[in-house]
Automatic annotation (TrEMBL):
<protein>
    <recommendedName>
        <fullName>Fanconi anemia group I protein</fullName>
    </recommendedName>
</protein>
<dbReference type="Pfam" id="PF14680">
    <property type="entry name" value="FANCI_HD2"/>
</dbReference>
<dbReference type="InterPro" id="IPR026171">
    <property type="entry name" value="FANCI"/>
</dbReference>
<feature type="domain" description="FANCI helical">
    <location>
        <begin position="405"/>
        <end position="641"/>
    </location>
</feature>
<feature type="domain" description="FANCI solenoid 2">
    <location>
        <begin position="232"/>
        <end position="386"/>
    </location>
</feature>
<feature type="domain" description="FANCI helical">
    <location>
        <begin position="138"/>
        <end position="216"/>
    </location>
</feature>
<dbReference type="InterPro" id="IPR029310">
    <property type="entry name" value="FANCI_HD1"/>
</dbReference>
<dbReference type="GO" id="GO:0006281">
    <property type="term" value="P:DNA repair"/>
</dbReference>
<feature type="compositionally biased region" description="Polar residues">
    <location>
        <begin position="1190"/>
        <end position="1201"/>
    </location>
</feature>
<dbReference type="InterPro" id="IPR029314">
    <property type="entry name" value="FANCI_S4"/>
</dbReference>
<feature type="domain" description="FANCI solenoid 4">
    <location>
        <begin position="938"/>
        <end position="1171"/>
    </location>
</feature>
<dbReference type="Pfam" id="PF14675">
    <property type="entry name" value="FANCI_S1"/>
</dbReference>
<dbReference type="InterPro" id="IPR029315">
    <property type="entry name" value="FANCI_S2"/>
</dbReference>
<feature type="domain" description="FANCI solenoid 1">
    <location>
        <begin position="17"/>
        <end position="134"/>
    </location>
</feature>
<dbReference type="InterPro" id="IPR029308">
    <property type="entry name" value="FANCI_S1"/>
</dbReference>
<dbReference type="Pfam" id="PF14678">
    <property type="entry name" value="FANCI_S4"/>
</dbReference>
<feature type="region of interest" description="Disordered">
    <location>
        <begin position="1178"/>
        <end position="1255"/>
    </location>
</feature>
Length: 1255
């Protein structure tokens, strides 16, 4: 019966017309369809599709997609094929594509979702879609347009469709491009929303869910790629590598600090790992693509690719053994790679090298060749590769079995490329010849070798003896036991073409030896602690004797060096350095020798500090005196270096220090940085701090006792803690800053840094000591000397606070270091009675992380802030403000607002005349206040600034009555601070307007892709944006009334121009596109327009006019550049204002609401040629009406509807600023409508005219 329906329709058309056919179609659509009838109707509809209009076609498709849930799975592919055929014939293409994508992306499968049958059906449908796109490319455009328009269309099936469409040549770039753009946009939106304070929490949560949804959809599409959809595997590989290449330089895991999302890099690596495990056809392509990109890309771009190879090696070692030949081809280019890339490549292949003797031997061959290259960077990489191989051997021996025998991804025995074997011992001895060659290389190569030897001892403590035996002959070249000058430091430098370089880093050598001796006390070298992993092998008696002799020789040498340095005279020692070179070269040699000597002193201090922790009380007194002596020698040597170099000396400026090479690549870190390994360990610095605290208490007690007995101290000079304070704090700061530069997997990190949070409590005690101002010198000293000591103490306090700031920042970035703040709170002795109730309240917070941060702020930072403010320590106050800001931004809204209110209270009740300190406190007050309180506070401060700076109608005040922090000394810096905050908000608005544009497009085109989900509506989002812009208007309105100086005035012009540009974009988005219904602007938007016209536009014209009057009166040359800069800012500002008003005129016309009734005609046209005769003619014709008056009257309904509005409209724009053609422009202009290029404006003699070309 249904088969004759098309013929019946043809007969009815001929006899009764289309009305009867339409009636029958309506009855058919409204009736209930069984699954068989649905399939039959889809197959028949193409025969009478010309009888169906668009409305009925949309209803028909809704009926079909609603009933597809009841259709048998085996019938779905043919049903979709019929729908695609209909779409290719022009039957509602958009609705067909949208329905298919959303059906298989969300509702398909039901209880069988995820089964192999469902996946096979989806795979067949993908093949149909791919074939349909090849036949009709317009279907591919519909798929791409659907995803481009709304992110909510993205699901696992949509991604599969895009990947399938990408197999069509003409859509290869566009399909993958839109998928990449959508994914990266989701990440950027989440990053922005997370850091933006004024966006609603619902929108932030939605942005996070969008990223999670995209990641899950993409991973699901990859996981299901082996069920009838193998044709998309090549595009998945291509897309994954494109994502890896899209990573920006630097720390790409900056945002992904939680487990909520993976991040671009981890997502790409997981996709490729899945393909590598599942699809044999993809393995060769992944390896080849990795090889090609490593050899052709920039070094920074290579790091993620090498990290991918590392993951593949670790998760699928036996599968990677099949591709050893390709990896060997990659190693052939070792000498041509960037140094760090070559090092990281060998480190990534280490787990595979442990299983493949062939790959190990080939790597050794490549490294041997590299060691004989002329390039320093190649030899440096080869040195690192040598120690990677040696450490891999030690690790394999320590494990005693195959590292990956328990791997779930292990291939069968028949798939093994070769039989993995445990490498036999002796690689250190085997490569000792290459290591001997390193001893005759440049200084940086030697330093890397010393670090590698120390890593070897850490991995295998029994290697300590052979390492010392290896180093002893080389060490004796620079140490003479019987000579007067035991250290021949002059042999450590070398002059090349007039440039002096450090050829032997003797300090690094001594640091290596000292660390090995500390790790292996005498008699325990061959009996390592059971808690330390090691591999035991027997030593002959001769070898044991040799190792003991080396250990004894080094121990005696270090003691003699220590005694020699006690008696050293720096001037005589450095003066003995002679040579045949010129005076300048000789001076450079002495500087380099002094640098080496500084490093040796640091090694000695580290040794003494380590011995202090285990010494008895009597021994401690002697060690403390030795310690202070060496510190004084170190400080005098650094002062000598500063005077020789005439500027502050930096170690890296004189010699190229060796980089810290990571044995594994730090995830997310693509930067190739270099940093010197510190000689002082965390435990040593903590011990030094404890010593300084002990010495300070001892000196204070002796000073008090002496003053009570009215006598001097004993003739033996007491040790002064201030003498070692600078040394401790300087090295602590360098130590903390270098902590993040060393990879977590580097063995040296544990040795040198250990638990760096242990530095917190003694450092805080030092801060309390320096802040308290206790008498660290006797009262008998002269006043001048006391003043110098107070200045030193203040400088040390500043340095200690900087150290604390860096340490707190590290703890906030590492969740496992939260114990630092708890330790700091526990040792705090500050009392602040006003915050006792707050402390009790915060102690009851359930969340431990929030409670710890809050207690640290209340118990430590705020009392410290108050005491420093009372003592007028303004530079130190800036550091405390920075710490408060960093911690406060991580607190919830309630706690953050309380700190913001406290900061505002400080601004109101404390007089601060230091401009930098005032700026930091104001920034703290505004930043810790949640919107809209932040801009309300900024507006209140701007009003007080207006009173202090003065205006045309008011005089200046010395100090603000409401905010004591605002005075003549601080007004300029506070103005700059608020302007900077406003600039940040305006930059945020740029992103927000783009999102508003997407909301507008979706609402205008009536796209509803997720009917069952709640989303932030465009109206709610827009009103939030308009409210934020309204607050910005209020702040800017205060600035345009001030008497601003030149930098602030110019900055204000630029900010206003950017802000008006955003206002114009908001206004343009309110104009409906062609064919869409025009909506009435919301009340929030109307309020924004009214406020802008009244409080900003009119005053800003007066502000510009005043600036121009100042230009006319300026004659000096110093103002010439200022006038030139302002002549660039002012025309741009005027143009943006007029562009904004142009869109308001068009919006007023289409919405029938006069939005410019509060506007005033602009009078400032510094770039406009004004004809005085024309002005006279206009005065002679007072009855002349602007062309816009008629249109305004029409919009208001009748001439009587508002005479005042008509008069206001006359003041809005003249015919000179808006031509009649501008009124007749279509409301559906493109996005760039009205945007006149800057070059075109210059060519038009700087006259802004509205024409058809503008729109």
């Amino acid at each position: 019966m249904l088969d004759i329906l098309p013929a019946c329709f043809n007969l009815m058309i001929n006899e009764n017309g289309r009305e009867s056919v339409g009636f029958i179609l309506d009855r058919v659509i409204e009736s209930e369809w069984s699954k068989g009838l649905l399939v039959k109707m889809v197959s028949l509809v193409r025969e009478f599709m010309h009888f169906i209009d668009k409305v009925r076609a949309r209803e028909f498709l809704e009926k079909v997609f609603k009933g597809m849930r009841r259709v048998d799975l085996q019938d779905l592919p043919s049903l979709v094929y019929q729908l695609l055929v209909l779409a290719s014939k022009g039957f509602n293409k958009k609705e067909v594509i949208e329905g298919v994508v959303m059906f298989f992306g969300s509702e398909f499968g039901g209880s069988k979702r995820g089964s192999s049958i469902v996946r096979q059906v989806e795979g067949t449908v993908l093949l149909h879609v791919n074939f349909a796109v090849k036949q009709d490319p317009s279907l591919g455009k519909e798929v791409i347009g659907l995803v481009k328009l709304d992110f909510r269309a993205l699901n696992h099936f949509t991604i599969s469709v895009l990947l399938s469409v990408a197999r069509v040549r003409r859509f290869s770039e566009s399909s993958l491009g839109i998928l990449k753009t959508v994914l990266l946009t989701a990440y950027r939106d989440h990053k922005f929303a997370k850091n933006c304070k004024w966006l609603p929490d619902d929108f932030k949560e939605e942005c996070l869910q969008n990223v999670q949804k995209a990641e899950k959809a993409l991973l699901r599409a990859v996981n299901e790629s082996n069920y009838g959809r193998e044709h998309i595997v090549p595009t998945i590989v291509q897309f994954s590598f494109q994502l890896l290449e899209s990573l920006e330089d630097g720390n790409v895991r900056e945002l992904w600090d939680s487990n909520a999302i993976l991040g671009i890099e981890e997502l790409s690596i997981q996709m490729l790992k899945t393909l590598f495990e599942v699809h044999e056809m993809a393995r060769n392509e992944i390896i080849e693509q990795s090889k090609f990109r490593i050899l052709s890309s920039k070094p920074e771009k290579n790091i993620p690719i090498i990290r991918l190879l590392g993951h593949l090696v670790q998760s699928n070692p036996y599968l990677m053994l099949e591709h050893v030949s390709r990896l060997k081809e990659l190693l052939d280019y070792f000498v041509f790679m960037h140094g760090k890339v070559a090092t990281h490549l060998v480190a990534a292949l280490v787990p595979l090298i442990k299983l493949s003797r062939d790959l190990r031997d080939y790597t050794i061959l490549v490294v041997r060749k590299a060691m004989f290259r002329r390039e320093d960077a190649v030899r440096l990489s080869a040195t690192n590769a040598i120690f990677n191989l040696i450490l891999a051997e030690k690790e394999a021996k320590r494990e005693g079995s195959f590292s990956f025998q328990d791997s779930s991804s292990q291939a069968s025995c028949s798939q093994h490329a070769e039989i993995p074997c445990i490498m036999d011992g002796g690689l250190f001895q085997e490569l000792s010849g290459l290591l001997q060659r390193c001893l005759y290389q440049q200084g940086e190569i030697k330093e890397v070798m010393y670090h590698g030897l120390l890593k070897l001892v850490l991995a295998d403590p029994t290697s300590g003896g052979p390492v010392l035996d290896f180093l002893l002959p080389h060490f004796r070249c620079f140490f003479k036991e019987d000579a007067d000058v035991q250290l021949e430091i002059s042999r450590c430098t070398k002059s090349l073409s007039g440039n002096v370089v450090i050829e032997e880093p003797l300090d690094a050598l001594l640091s290596c030896v000292s660390s090995i001796l500390l790790l292996q006390p005498h008699g325990k070298a061959d009996c390592p602690d059971s808690s330390r992993p090691y591999f035991v092998f027997s030593l002959s008696q001769e070898n044991e004797l040799g190792s003991d002799l080396s250990r004894e020789s080094f121990s005696n040498a270090l003691l003699k060096i220590q005694k020699f340095l006690k008696k050293i005279n720096l001037e005589d020692f450095l003066g003995r350095i002679q040579g045949d070179s010129s005076t300048s070269v000789l001076e450079e040699e002495r500087k380099c020798c002094a640098l080496i000597l500084v490093g040796i002193l640091e090694v000695v201090v580290n040794t003494i500090a380590t011995r202090l922790s285990e010494a008895t009380d009597i021994e401690k007194a002697d060690l403390e005196k030795e310690l202070v002596g060496f510190v004084n020698l170190h400080e005098s040597l650094e002062k000598d270096l500063c005077t020789r170099l005439s500027t502050s000396i930096k170690r890296g400026k004189v010699r190229a220090t060796a980089p810290v090479m990571a044995s594994n690549i730090e995830p997310g870190n693509n930067r190739l940085t270099q940093e010197r390994v510190p000689y002082l360990t965390t435990s040593s610095l903590c011990q030094l701090m404890q010593t300084a605290l002990k010495l300070s208490s001892t000196e204070c007690s002796k000073t008090i006792a002496a003053s009570q007995h009215h006598s001097q101290l004993s003739s033996s000079k007491p040790v002064k803690c201030l003498q070692i304070m600078a040394f401790i704090l300087n090295h602590s700061l360098h130590h903390i800053k270098s902590y993040l530069t060393m990879a977590k997997e580097n063995p040296l990190r544990t040795l040198i840094y250990g638990e760096i949070k242990l530095m917190g409590p003694p450092l805080l005690k030092l801060i309390f000591l320096l802040k308290s101002g206790k008498k660290l010198v006797s009262e008998e000293k002269k006043k001048e000397e006391k003043r110098i000591k107070d200045e030193d103490r203040k400088g040390y306090l500043h340095l200690a606070l900087v150290c604390m700031k860096e340490l707190v920042t590290i703890s906030l970035q590492n969740p496992h270091m939260t114990g630092l703040l708890e330790d700091l709170v526990s040792v705090s002795t500050l009392e602040y009675p006003e915050l006792d109730d707050k402390y009790e309240e915060d102690s009851r917070i359930d969340d431990q992380r929030i409670r710890t941060k809050q207690l640290f702020v209340v118990k430590v930072l705020k009392p410290l802030f108050s005491e420093l403010l009372a003592q007028s320590y303004f530079h130190e106050l800036e550091i405390i403000s920075d710490m408060l800001l960093v911690i406060g931004e991580q607190l919830p809204r309630k706690q953050r607002n309380s700190h913001g209110a406290w900061s505002i209270h400080v601004c109101k009740n404390n007089v601060i005349k230091n401009s930098k300190a005032a700026r930091s406190v104001v920034a703290l007050a505004i930043s810790l206040s949640s919107p809209p309180s932040d801009l309300i506070a900024a507006q209140d401060m701007a009003k007080e600034l207006l009173k202090v700076t003065g205006s045309e109608t008011s005089d200046t005040a010395e100090v603000s009555e409401s905010y004591s922090i605002i005075n003549q000394s601080t007004s300029t810096s506070i103005i700059s601070c608020i302007q900077k905050l406003i600039e940040a908000i305006i930059v945020d608005m740029d992103w927000a307007i783009k999102k508003l544009n997407i909301f507008t497009l979706v609402s205008q085109r009536s796209i509803h892709l997720s009917r069952n989900e709640e989303h932030v509506t465009g109206l709610e989002y827009g009103n939030n944006l308009y409210s934020r812009a309204e607050e910005v208007v209020k702040v800017l309105s205060c600035f345009v009334s001030m008497n601003l100086k030149e930098p602030q005035a110019e900055h204000l012009l630029r900010l206003s121009a950017k802000f008006y540009k955003h206002l114009a974009q908001m206004s343009r988005l309110r104009i409906a596109s062609k064919g869409c219904k025009q909506l009435i602007p919301s009340l929030a938007f109307q309020k924004l327009v009214e406020l802008t016209c009244k409080q900003l536009t009119v005053p800003i014209y007066n502000f510009v006019a005043e600036m121009q009057r100042e230009q006319e009166n300026a004659n000096s040359k110093c103002t010439a550049n200022k006038i030139k800069r302002e002549n660039k800012c002012i025309p741009d500002l005027i143009y943006q204002i007029e562009d904004y008003e142009k869109y308001l005129i068009r919006l007023s016309k289409v919405s029938k609401i006069n939005l410019l009734r509060h506007a005033k005609r602009s009078t400032s046209r510094d770039f406009k040629i004004i004809d005085s005769r024309k002005i006279i003619r206009e005065e002679d014709e007072p009855n002349h009406k602007p062309a816009y008056h008629a249109s305004t009257t029409a919009e208001n309904g009748s001439p009587e509807s508002g005479d005042n509005e008509g008069n206001d409209s006359e003041k809005v724009l003249s015919p000179q600023s808006v031509s009649p053609s501008a009124e007749e422009e279509s409301a559906s202009d493109g996005e760039n409508g009205g945007a006149l290029p800057h070059a075109k404006r210059v060519k038009r003699d700087r006259v802004v005219l509205d024409s058809d070309d503008e729109a």
